[in-house]
Amino acid sequence: MSEYRTIKVATDGGVTIVTLNRPEALNALSSAVLEELIAAFAAFQADDGQRCAVVTGEGKAFAAGADIKELAATSAAQFYAADGLSRWQSHLVRAVRKPWIAAVNGFALGGGCELAMMADLIIAADTARFGQPEIKLGTIPGMGGTQRLARAVGQARAMELILTGRMMDAAEAQGAGVVARVVPADGLMDAALETARTIAAMPPLAVLAAKEAVHAAANLPLEDGLVLERRLFHLLAGTEDKAEGMAAFIEKRTAEWKGR
Ligand code: HXC
Question: What is the ipTM of this complex?
Answer without folding.
Answer: 0.98
